[in-house]
Amino acid sequence: xxxxxxxxxxxxxxxxxxxQEVMPLLCKxxxxxxxxxxxxxxxxxxxxxxxxxxxxxxGFGVLGVEISPLAVEQFFxxxxxxxxxRDSDQGRHYVAGDIEIICGDIFELNxxxxxxxxxxxxxxxxxxxxxxxxxxxxxxVYGQLPEGCAGLLITLDYPQEQMQGPPFSVPDDEVQTLFxxxxxxxxxxxxxxxxxxxxxxxxxxxxxxxxxxxxATGR
Length: 219
Ligand code: SAH
Description:
The protein contains 8 helices and 9 strands. The protein is globular, with a radius of gyration of 16 Å. By secondary structure, the chain is an alpha/beta fold. Helices cover 29% and strands 27% of the residues. It has a single domain (3-217), classed as Rossmann fold, CATH 3.40.50.150. The chain has helices at residues 3-12, 24-33, 51-57, 69-78, 111-115, 134-142, 172-179, 198-202, and strands spanning 40-44, 61-66, 84-88, 91-96, 99-103, 119-123, 150-157, 183-192, 209-217. S-adenosyl-L-homocysteine binds next to strand 2.
């Protein structure tokens, strides 16, 4: 699953993961994390998610990272924002108000940038990556976030043999293994969403849960 796979999906408009409303599970669970006001929140693999303006509206600085320039440009255009643009070795930075999106590869994000984040919101990011990329992703991102960083991780859990990802199934035992070394991941909520998910129903998937984790680094 290389960059070209995602660039093509954005070019062709096959972006079903994009939601037309703010994620209800974010609004429900974010306040309990008590991320300090004004802190910078990392949104890896952010797409053009409406969850970013929601986080900004709650008083946080948002740092999104997204590989597709189309996604980033659509985000700012659809919100009527004219970002300032500059380049660095991490990618192209677009900044408007409290929202910055780096258009680049998450694996190019450097230690200094990660160390500046106090919160993290991972929806359809970990589960967008195939199994062989997940350990490197978790090491790179979560291994470099500062101690005391809090966040939400939202996963899907379904019989992987019944449908191909992305989005991939990342069951709880895998989450616990991936985060074992430094980040605690505790389940806040598990919800059966199969009845609402046409695509999974059509594929004959028999069980589909979404799971919300509270993440805390520096255990
Ligand atoms: N979190 C968003 C998007 C999820 S889909 C949402 O909830 O809507 C996954 C996104 O990650 C896609 O937009 C894809 O273009 C982007 N992506 C995939 N690999 C990436 C990488 N290595 N670095 C940065 N972005 C990546």
